[in-house]
Design a protein that fits this description.
By secondary structure, this protein is an alpha+beta fold. About 35% of the residues lie in helices and about 30% in strands. About 25% of the residues are buried.
Length: about 180
Amino acid sequence: MIHYIAIVAITLASNYAIAQGPVVINQAISEQEVLASQQGWCQALVDISSTYAKNGQAAARALAEQVIDSAYGYQIGTVLFKPTLTVNPQTFRTTRAGALSYFVGGDSSFPKDTGFALKGWEKCEIDNAAIFITGDSATTMGKVHFTDKDGTITSVDKTWGFVKDDAGSLRIVVHHSSLEHQPK
């Protein structure tokens, strides 16, 4: 009888583990994962811009919500997000709502947001100065170049910090962006 109970307990535990999905054991981040995440972010920004042009603000907002939920770590905790074109007292966007408003505007709590992702971006390119990976976290620093529908390029200095969530997906937990210094 004891042997039978042990087999049932092991079977139930195995079934529970399977039902919960795969367990990620190795949380180490690779350079390829970082580069793919950055490229995914760029493509998402272009896609939001394109969606806005074709289908309007509501469709762009829905896509931006999906992007934020899949790319950023707001479900893990506070994200240290300092977007490019923000002003005091709302310079930092540590909440999902603040990030969403920055990307697509339309939130009365952030009245100065006009939607960075709605500016007609057609191309986005990453130019990393360096990538620092240490086990389960990675940091990048470099330039991101945005090209709008008129061919005008806007370049920003960008730092990203990444970690893996419990499912092994890379999440942005630090996002700092600023316009390049323009000497007078």
